[in-house]
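call fold(seq) -> tokens
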Amino acid sequence: MFTGIIESLGKIHQIEQENTNLHLWIGCDFTHELKIDQSVAHNGICLTVVEIKDYLFKVTAIEETRIKTSINQWKVGDVVNLERGLKLGDRLDGHLVQGHVDQVGKCIHISSHEGSWKYTFQYDTSTGNTTIEKGSITVNGVSLTVVDSKINEFSVAIIPYTYEHTTFQYLKVGDTINLEFDVFGKYVAKLQQIKL
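ret:
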């Protein structure tokens, strides 16, 4: 379980393919604090630390993860948002995030607003996911509040701190992003589909 508050940016140093699995070696400023079998969210994808060597740690993405996320598009040198699992007793500054990406979306517009930025994303609604204005959404692992909500798109506002400390500073129109919709909203939507 995570909060969507990014701890650090990580840099991808090596990518290895083994059958349908993808192994990634990543470096960040808290590598020395990690332990084998620890969960870390990478752009919102929960992956398990399987090896640590010097300043790098290794995680493995299986085929299911590769199908449902943007991980196949990652390249050596890319930067990703990182967050370690939530500790019980910590403040919940974002919202409850599972690290289970629901689907990918696409950045379709970026505008600057004199000290903040507005990003608009589009996604496929056939999966049943939806957003609501002032509701929570996770974009590449970042907990955000929906500003505008339409049938298949939504916008978020980014403050300078978030821009500078996450991968939003690198995001471009046309980029694919990982989306995790609010878990409570997903349960409500599912209950509405069930005929009692």
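The mean pLDDT is 93.
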